[in-house]
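$ ./design --mode recover --in tokens.txt
reading tokens...
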């Protein structure tokens, strides 16, 4: 009974929950920071937070190869079906479902969600997962919002928050987010992929750990972390 989070660079993550492989926003083949091969990664489920290309990424090809079920909002689930994905599970903001790997709820995110071909992608989301007695909150692409405190009130063990600035929260707002979410562990994402979102994750680690009782794990692409 272990949950392992793997960082694939940018905002691409993997969760292995007692052997079930879940990919999140698998942007790999066009991702300058990625080291994983989308033709080889195992996937049982793929979570997609919003329609932007740096999140949809290789979702369609991985889903076709593996038969993985794509979990995303209703609008994007329909779009992925139209792209030829066989297994999709639509949810929407505020709605949770007991999947075989755990209870997954779609949370608010302040961002956009236009799909790569210009299709409407509904509202962007984050994910709150309750699996094996641990809560994981993936903020995904978002600006800071006060309702993160409500998510934190659920008792978050591990969070992943963007720190890149420009397109999402930057380091200062991400610190305020961590102060509201109060996770035991946090992984910074969505930075250093391109010049526009260059950040020093180790400086952010120092700033966060000076201010709140959370341990920051700046992971290199390919690195993993066990949720204890
Ligand atoms: Ni985005
Ligand atoms: Mn993005």
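writing sequence...
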């Amino acid at each position: 009974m272990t949950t392992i989070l793997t960082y694939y660079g940018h905002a691409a993550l993997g969760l292995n929950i007692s052997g079930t492989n879940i990919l999140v926003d698998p942007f790999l083949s066009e991702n300058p920071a990625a080291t994983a091969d989308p033709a080889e990664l195992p996937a049982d489920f793929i979570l997609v937070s919003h329609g932007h290309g740096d999140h949809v990424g290789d979702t369609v090809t991985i889903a076709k190869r593996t038969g993985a079920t794509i979990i995303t909002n209703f609008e994007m689930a329909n779009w992925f079906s139209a792209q030829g994905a066989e297994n999709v599970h639509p949810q929407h903001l505020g709605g949770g479902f007991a999947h075989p790997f755990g209870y997954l709820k779609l949370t608010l995110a302040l961002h956009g969600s236009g799909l790569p071909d210009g299709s409407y992608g509904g509202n962007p989301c984050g994910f709150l997962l309750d699996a094996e007695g641990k809560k994981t909150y993936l903020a995904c692409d978002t600006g800071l919002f006060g309702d993160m405190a409500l998510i934190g009130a659920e008792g978050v063990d591990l969070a992943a928050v963007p720190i890149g600035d420009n397109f999402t929260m930057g380091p200062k707002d991400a610190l305020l987010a961590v102060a509201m979410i109060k996770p035991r562990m946090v992984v910074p994402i969505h930075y250093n992929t391109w010049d526009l979102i260059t950040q020093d994750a180790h400086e952010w680690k120092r700033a966060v750990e000076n201010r709140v009782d959370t341990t920051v794990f700046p992971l290199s692409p390919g690195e993993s972390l066990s949720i204890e």
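exit 0
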